[in-house]
Structure formats: structure tokens, C-alpha cells
Amino acid sequence: MKIVIVGDGKVGFALAEQLAHEDHDVTVIDNNIMVLEESLDALDVMVVNGNGASLEIQRQADVQNSDLIIAATSSDEVNLLCCVLAKKLGCKNAISRVRNPDYTEQIEFMKEELGLAMTVNPERTAAKEIYRILQFPSFLRRDAFSRGRVEIVEFVVDEDSILVGKSLIELPKLIGMKILVCAVDRDGEVVIPNGRFVLEKGDKINVTAPSSELVKLTKKLGIKAPRVKSVIIIGGSRIARYLTEELVKSGISVKIIDNDREKCVELAQQLPGAVIVNADGTKQDVLIAEGLRQTDAVVTLMNMDEENLIVSMFANSIGVPKTVTKVNRTEYYPLFDDLGIGSVVCPKNLTANGIIRYVRAMQNTSGGTVHTLHRIVDGRAEALEFTAAAGTKYLDMPLSSYKLKKNMLISCILRRGQIIIPSGSDKIMLGDSVVVVTTSDAGVSDLNEIFEEGTK
Amino acid sequence: MNGRLVLNYMGQILRIEGVFMLPALVIAIALGETGSVVGFVVSAGICLAVGTVLTLMKTKDRSFFAREGFVTVALSWIMMSLVGALPFCISGAIANPIDAFFESVSGFTTTGATILSDVESLPKSDLYWRSFTHWLGGMGVLVFFLAIAPISRGGGTLVHLLRAESTGPTVGKLVPKLRYTARILYGIYIVMTLSELVLLLVGGMPLFDSVTTALGTAGTGGFSVRNASIAAYDSVYLQMVVAVFMVLFSVSFNIYHFILLRQFRAVYKNEELRLFLGIVIVSTVVVSLNTISLFESFGVALRYSFFQVSSIISTTGFATSEVNTYPELSRSLLILLMIFGGCAGSTGGGIKISRLLILLKFVKNQIHQAIHPRSVKLMMIDGHPVEDGMAKNVCGYMVVYVIVAVVSVLLISLDGFGFETTFTSVLSALNNIGPSMGLVGSFGNYGSFSVVSKLVLIVNMIIGRLEIFPMILLFVPSVWRRSK
């Protein structure tokens, strides 16, 4: 597909990288030639230098013949103008980043009236993600499928876990419920395991389980799961605002620490339910004085990755049960495992995931749309949810009668509200939702792509 | 330095070369040229075998940056030329290894300088291979590799290969995908080559001559299968077809892509194209007025002058008349054209018209700056501002260019041929033209040069074709340092 991305910033670059990797024709527009040169050196994309909201530049980028324009500049207004112009020029679909909270209320209206396929708000998405993590602090990540009925949760098998030394086939008996380990990160290698795979301590595992049974799962696994009742947020960014709204609504007490007086005043107006503290959140004595030792969770949302990481490490070292760290630069992901900082959230990746799910759904040919796409294990594996359509192969045949390609796994089948953690005798039937886990270089956009060709 | 990956790519290049030897082998078998059959079988076998061994070099490290790009291109070209000389050597067509290497380098770099005094005595298959090396070298074998290779996804950094091999100060993509950019370039190239072939056949040129002439023109190479070059075909039509196509092949291929996209405005506004065509027209008129006494009428003079100008500025080196007989003004002008060369992004050699354009604008701005020291002036090309770095880059390029030329002239002087021959033979090699003036005039050859001079010219040809820096980088120690 021909895709034009306006804005070569964090989200723009992440998108360009992923979409070029998935073999799309990507053109990137930006008015900064330096960042374009970098993209040109690193990615298989074309670049156009100029203002993405100008017609001439859009024509140069051949927007009129493109399938999709994604506007991800720092300005909402420019993004919307880009999309409107592109649609008028003949671009088939448009996605715009709109993140000013003032527009949140009117977003559906604008989407409809301006003919946008999708709008994305990285901060809001990140806030939602963090909120979900705080609901189950024992998991590093939670990714929901089928409108939240099934989840893939990530956690580390620690030394005294009952899972150490057990093969996957033994698990259901061991913990007395059906779960499926769909991806394992062992020493930086991602494995899509089979039944004979034996777990070791230090493995980071991703498990598929029904959402309603997550509490049971934590109990069975013997993980201590204290509920989060109070949260300290360091950095009063937009994410903090969205997150606090959610947390306050569910009765969790929130304290936001920010260094900027004006920002604090603003937050105090918008978030009457939270305690706003104007102080330097990177100072230890400030943190201690504000009750870091007593809080259930710390969320670091400052602008600098380094500050977030340091503060999270400090919080961890004095025994805060749960820390969530916002990180913008993902190159250093592998290092974070050793730091012991708990959950890491990257807004640009969350946004990119949402858009890539949309692109995969556009590409899909057999009608079985991609409903959900989550990148798990630091983006090295993917979990996708499809609907089995009439064009899907091997319908009504037991899973054991055909083969999947290497590194593909069906982790869950949903049929009319019923959740099936599949075994060999289960079948895919028309209309089922199927969750597939695979390594991320596969780039699956259609359910049929997971089947090994030439099997009966 | 990611050596294993570089070797892997070189192996793939070698295999491509091996496959490309097969048509020559077919010709050798069809014409019963026994020596050449052996030559091509052995050479192709070596290419495929060594290439396959090299491609077994696997590495997980996919890092490929500018220096890997430069080194891959430079080493591939040296290797390709060495292997390309094997058929001549083995078949005995050109028994002396240095001579065979010279001929092969001259072929791949689209120079067209030959050491042969009697071209027509060579086996047909070797002649075909010689002309084919022009064609492959013209657009570039790595560009061909990019067009066909199963580039792994996210192989965007291979753009460094395109940059290092394509001509001109800036190399841009035509379409987002590198692979398709390379395919479009080769597509245009193939279509244009076939068009010329058909036009030559229509004009009554024998099939074999048409094929080799078309290949030689396309790469702006200039190897002819006749001792008398294009003058051997006593046909105004054929000479004009070749002359026009030489100009066409030295126009940037981006222009043809614009035409395919029907963006005629971009073509019309292209300053490099305007300057290039302007130089061709003015030079043709000046040379024809200057040489009118040599020919029976102005019309004839115009015809010969156009061919000569086209042949020199496109850096092809085909000949219809002996340049040594031209008056001094024409010869000086032609020497200047040798240096200018074709447009960036074409198969032509020389410093490229776009560099000339940047230099001229740079000088203009400097003069303006001297008069109005506080003025702010941007360099604009095709209506877009050009970064300061570009002018510096081009100036730096010219300095290295002059240094290479001066050192080479000094070395060639050892042969004692006189200044004209020494000077123009270096320019001719460095700008990938082929025949030049003096001893190596339009119908002359390099057979009388010493081994040292031949080696100097070989280095000059490769430096010229790859636009200096990839070759220079090979001699910078830090390039070879391990990255770990």
C-alpha cells in the first residue's frame, strides 16, 4: 500500500520504520531536512521536505494516489488540515493525531465531519494502558482482546515460583485452570513455545487467560497481588491528566508532583480530586516527604527518559510495590530488564500499534479483519485478533489436522462469548475470534497467512 | 566494518556477473570460437563457484552504513573487473593479463579505451562481452543487484549502495522502495537500449554490430567492434542515431521518470538539463564554425561536430572523424567538455553537469557576497534551496579530482609521450571517455603505454566511475577497523 506519513518525529519515525518493514511504499514529509536525512539513511522510504499541509508538497509526495495519509506532526490543527486536504486530493484514508484534551469531546464529531478513518491520541492511549497495568500490579503488561474478555498478561517467573522446572503441558493440572503460555522471553530470545517447553526462573512469560479469571490466576500462581489504593505520579504531563481522571474515578487516591508552578495550578483546576504538589520530583527528600515509602505505586511521567528511569529505580529500591515508567526511546529496552523497574510504557509504540492494526485490517483480503494488534515482549512478538470469515481455510477442522507455520500459535478462540484455550481437538468455526501469537517479523495481516501451505 | 556482510554482497555480485557471461558463452558456442568457449566456461564457473562460497558467509549483524556501502561498491568493482578480464586472458584473445585487466576495467567503467590496435581480429564472443561490460557498468551492477535481490524487509540502509554507485552529488530515490527505484532505472535503461538497437537495425547495421553499438552507447562506453569505430558505417542516419542516443543516455534518468509520470513541468524547469543541452548546442555550433574548412559544407561540419561533441560530453568516445585534425579552439573546447561529462544520475562520466552548476552558482554567490558582504543569499536549484554543505562537498570533490589528475599526469609523464597525450589520456581515463587526443586520438589505442601507465590509468578509470570517494576510502585505515 502507498502510505504518506506527515511529521518525522517520534511517532512518525516509529510508524515509518514498522510500515516500511511490512513492505509498504512509505513517503515521509517533514519540514526538517536533517531528520529526513536520518530516515532516508535508516529506512527504505522516500522523503519530501516541506510543509505537509501545503498542496504542492502533498502532490510531490503523490498523496493523490495514496491509500493512506497519517498526520503525526506536533500540531493537531496542522494534522487535521493535512488530512482534509489529502482526502480532497483523492487519498483514500486519513488518520490524524489529535491530542489536545480540549478536543477530546468533539473528536467523534470531527472524525465524522472531516472523513477521518481514525484519530489517535498517544497520551490518552498511554494513560489507559497505565491504568490497566495498575489494576493488576503483579503483571508487567496486560493486552486485551475481544473487547477485554481475554487478555495476554506478562510476568516474570521468579525463583520461588511454582512454575520453575515445569513443562507447559503440565501447567493446567498444576494450577487447576486452563492457561496457555504463548511467548517466552528468555535471555533476550523470544520463543513461541510448544508443550514440551520447560520454564526456568527469570523467564518473562506471556500468558493467555480470560479476564474474569485473572484474580484467580494470580492466587493460583501464588503471586502476591496487593491492590493499588494510592498512586504517586511524578511529572504533570497530559498523560498524568488523563490517568488521574481514570484513577480518581475508581476511587484511588492520587498525588501528582510537578516542578512547574503554572502547570500545577492548571492541574489543580482540572483535577479537583487529586493532590497536586509543586516540587522537584527528582529529589529524594521531596519524594520521601510526599510519602513514597507508603504509596502502593509510582508512575514516572516526566519528559526525560533518564529522570523517569532513575526515579523508578529509586522507588523500587526503597520498596514501592509497583512502578510504571514512561519511556520514549525504545532502543534501550533490553537494558530495562536488568534495572528491575517493573512496567515500561512507551506512548509512541502504543500509537504506532493502533495505526498498524488499522493498516493490516485495510490490507486484509479474505474479510477476516484484524481486530486487535498488540506487540508483546518489547515489540519482538505480536498478538493479533482475527475474525474467521468464509474465506478462512481449515474451518471446522480440528487444529491437530493441519500445521501452522513456524513461530505461529493460536492462543485463544472466542465463540459467542465462550472462551476456548485451544488444544488439538478444538476447531476454528465461522465467526470465531481467533487470537494468534507470532514473532513480529512475520507481519501477518490475514488469518490464512498463519497456516503452513501444503498440509492436508 | 561489517566484513562478512560485505563479502556476502560481493558474492552475490559475482554470481550475477557469472550469469551475465552465459550469453557470451552462447555466442562463442554458436560461432564455434573454441578458445572463447573455454574462456567463458572457466570464468563463469569461477564466478558462480566463488560467488556461492562467498554468499555462504552469513552474519546476524545486519548493520550496513555509509562506509560499508562505499567499501562494498569499491571492492565489487575491482573484483568484477578482475574477473571480467579472465575470458580475454583464458581464450588468449588478449593474452597479457595487464592488458586484459585494462580492457575489462575500461569496459566496466564505460571508458572505452582499448589497448587493441586491431579490434576486428578478436573473437565475436569476446567483442560482445567487451561491449556488454559497458552496459552493465553504465547503470551499475549493484543497482542491478538491488533491483533483483531478495532484500530483507527493512533493508533500507542498502540505499548506501545506490549512493555509492550512482553518479552525481545527490542520489535520490524515484519511489519509496529502493528495489523499485532500481527496477525503474533498469527498466528505462533496457527500453532505451532496445529502442536504439531497433533504430540501428532499421538503418541497415548488421545485427551483431547493432547489439554491441547499442550496448556501448547505453553505458556511454565507446568500445566499437570496428577499427574505424562508427566511421566504419558509412551512413549519416546511423551516425546521427548514435549521436542522439549518446546525448540521451547522458541525461539524468530522473528526467525520463518525470516524463513517464507526465510531469513535463519538472522536466522543463530542470536547470541541469537546460545547462547540459545549452552546452551541447553552443559547443556544436562553435566546433562546426571552427572546423568548416575541414569539411565540404557547413552542414557536413555540423554533423561531424555534433557527433564529436556528443561523443565527448557523454564520455562515450565513439568516433566518426579524427579529432587530432581539428583546429586548436575546437580541441580545447572538447577537452573542457571531457571534464564536464554528462548529467548526474545518467550513465555518463566526468564531473557531472550538476556539480558544474553548483560550482557556477557558488562562484556567483561568492561574488555577490564580496560586493554586498552583509547580504543573505541562498543557492537555489530547480527552485529549491541547496544546503551549504552541498557546495562544500562539491568543492572538496573538485580538489581531490585535481589532485588525482595531477599525480596521474606526473606518473604517466614517465613514458615521455609529450604533454598533450599525457594530459588528455589522464583526463580521458578519469572521466571515462576512452580515446582522447595526440597518440590516443579518436582512432588510437593505449597499446604503447607502459605497464605502470596502464595501471595508473586503470586506477583513474575506477576512481572516475565511482566518483572518487569509494576508492579513496579503501585506503583510509579507520575504515577497516573492527566495529567491535
**Helical percentage of chain B:** 55-70%
Find the count of extended strands of chain B (DSSP E, 2+ residues).
2
Largest sheet of chain B: 2 strands, antiparallel
Our estimate of the beta-strand percent of chain B is under 5%
Q: Would you state the CATH class of the largest domain in chain A? A: Alpha Beta
Estimated radius of gyration of chain B: 22 Å
Order of helices and strands of chain B: HHHHHHHHHHHHHHHHEEHHHHH
What would CATH call the architecture of the largest domain in chain A? 3-Layer(aba) Sandwich
Number of domains of chain A: 4
Could you give the order of strands across the largest sheet of chain B? 1-2
Helix/strand/pairing class of chain B, anyone?
mainly alpha
Shape of chain B: globular
Strand order of the largest sheet of chain A: 3-2-1-4-5-6
Strand tally of chain A, please? Answer: 22
In round numbers, the mean pLDDT of chain A is 87
Gross morphology of chain A is: globular
What kind of assembly state do the chains in view correspond to? heterodimer
